[in-house]
Amino acid sequence: MDSQRIINSIEKYTIHWRVSFGYLFALVYVLLVRPTSLFLLVVGIEIAFFGLLIRFWAAGYLRKSEELCISGPYAYVRHPLYLGSFLLGFGFCLAGSSFKYWARSSIIWLIFLFSFGIIYFFQILAEEKKLEKIFGEDYLQYSRAVPLFFPCLTKFDGQKVSFFDFKLFRKNKEYLALIGFLLVGIFISVRYAFGELYRESQSNFTWRKLENRSFQVGEKLLFIVKWGVIPGGWATLEVPQEVTVNGRQAYRIISRAWTNSFFDIFYKVRDHNESWMDTESLCSLGYEKHLREGNYSKDEKVIYDQEGGFALVEGKNERILINSYTHDVLSGLYFIRTQNFTLGKTYFFDVNNNGKNWQLEVKILNREEVSVPVGKFDCWLIEPFLRHEGIFQHKGRILIWLTADEKKIPVLMRTKIPLGSIDTELTEIKN
Known about the structure:
Blueprint: H1 2-32, H2 38-59, H3 80-95, H4 102-135, H5 137-145, H6 166-171, H7 175-203, E1 220-227, E2 230-245, E3 248-259, H8 261-264, E4 270-278, E5 284-293, E6 296-305, E7 310-313, E8 319-321, H9 329-337, E9 346-353, E10 356-372, E11 375-385, E12 398-403, E13 410-417, E14 420-430
Antiparallel strand pairs: 1-2, 1-14, 2-3, 3-4, 4-5, 5-6, 6-7, 7-8, 9-10, 10-11, 11-12, 12-13, 13-14
């Protein structure tokens, strides 16, 4: 008795949430699907289309609760509509499957199999009880001869034979399944096409050759960090050496920031960031950060495969697609230094951080003289529109003054915050 009550309760909830779960699956599918195989795409859509035809066929015979359907597809299987739905879902799961994005594909398959293994099982069970109650012995005789879900090859020989009725087809609104099939089919086909174009563009990747006269190995910059006029800590930017990363020569760029003993009491900062910047193409090959700011902490290492066109975060299996010559936030600062500035001009380049890609916009605002502890300099005033964690956790407007010479050394960085500003002023230059 208790087990029957549990089954009845499960039936009730699965039937109630069946449609909502279908919408949830569609949402997850759209967000996660990344088709990469033309073969699977074509075969999957063909299977889904076959499932659609079965649903069309069944909809022209179905008279819900009015008479027992034993003709058309119902002569071979008791629930052809659910069989068609299964083939539709199976086909689209197959069409969107990808070994490259196996984690995404696994989630899609798990949700689909769960919905049919659990939700539709109880839905079919409930309908079986309902049909037996309505049609009695006629349905029992029919169910003994015709399989529940997997069709038989021999046709059920019933006394009453009916024919496909287009009015029934319209009444059962099966055209909605056609609309859904077309929308999903077009969506994954377009996603595959754009992915293929992207992969083709990446296969044509060549390492560019850019000249760098702005910084060299051995450069080290020491900054004092102030909140208004109050010294809060120190920061460094340095290029200590060249290293080899995946067979490429790269500048090893390091930034550090730490608060002084007084500010340690209120908000202790110990940040360490490293970037590996290709010496020839001046793009990022990797980035590592270790942030310790008050109660906030984060550790992450990313490898940028420029030839493959993806970023790989250490500890995660997912590959993030990137554009050619993408930068991390630290290599981006050094790349700016290699550009020839023109007053009023805006520069754009691709940056990847925290698993996201965007175009970094840098505006050349002005040319003005700036005094910092190490001296007085003629500078370019630039404003990068960033959204990243860096020397400190930046959340406001950022202004940077770079020397108006070939080196374009950052002498002052100012971050606007709700309570004034944080100034990072150059105090020492080495090499």
